[in-house]
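Handout, section B. The chain below has 383 residues.
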Amino acid sequence: MNKFIKFGIACALLCIIFVSLGCSKGAKEIRIGAIFPMTGGSATFGKSSKEGMEIAVEEFNEKGGINIGGKNFLIKPIYDDSAGQPEQAANAARKQIDQNKVIAIVGEVMSKNSLAIAPICQSKGIVMVSSASTNPEVTKKGDYIFRVCFLDSFQGVVGARYAYNTLKVKKAAILYDNANDYNKGLASFFSDEFKRLGGRIVADEAFTDEEKTVDFKAQLTTIKSAKPDFLYLPNYYAASALIMKQAKEIGLNVPTGGGDGWDSPQLVKIGGQSVEGGFFSNHFSKDDPRPEVQNFVKKYIAKYGAEPDALASLAYDAAFVLLSAIEKAGSIKGENIRDTLKSIQINGVTGKISFDQDRNPIKSAVILQIKNGKQQYVTTVNP
């Protein structure tokens, strides 16, 4: 009887190992979770992110996967859609960890969703690498939480300095979604720096929920009466495009700017001529001559038939740095992956990636401008 009990225990242990590592057609697998907004108002962010991550996964699998304990394991990504909603993002994280048995998670894109996922990952000892959540609070949720993008505290300053020093504007207005952590944070950092430089914020207007709001004319009328020289829109692309379109309709014809949330082809499709001349801070330019950038751009175009945006490049970097850390650690344990990430250094598509004591990268930003309906590189701004 004891032999049967021992045999049963051994079988149970083997099952646990196979569930953790996965198994597909005889090839062992490591499961990596990915949570992106693939539907909803920011769906282009999710689409680009998934495509960028796929290239990183393919690169590792094409060389035989990751060696752990003398055996190679292929990477199996498990994708879930947050639909841009924190509650759905949190549910996806729980499912991936508890049911899919992922060993780490890439995501989220939107700060409000990362703020929902991060405490779950931290409590479970699961490493999370956000590709594009720029709100400073994200990595404060715990030492298992990393990101590969710069922070809003940096890009807000970049935007303010470009407006004040380069565009020479002295009176700015801000219009933002006050229910979104990303929008609120970026608005605040822009405002603080613009005023520190000597500028004036003549109008500070807000709305609630850019996923649902489509009429901004009341706020824009108030802004117009304040006579600003410049309009800062720290929102995602759909709302920003609609705002610029409606601003022109009421005769508010001033330069506009924003953050990385503008980075989508939909900005021009929705806003048309109204977005022409607008500038925004971003993580990446396809025109960067570095080999890491050009190799990625070439692979992306070959696979998807279109040029990559910053969201694709950030998701590639997030996946690549995570997989590199797992490979270097030679382990699937969360604490080993975390400790290896803390000291890793990677030449990524979006720049050199290493982490400070708060698990944030120290990186430059680029300024892009919409000219003739396309993004044009303007300059690079270092920290």
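Note. The two ends are 68 Å apart (CA to CA). Compare this with the example in section A.
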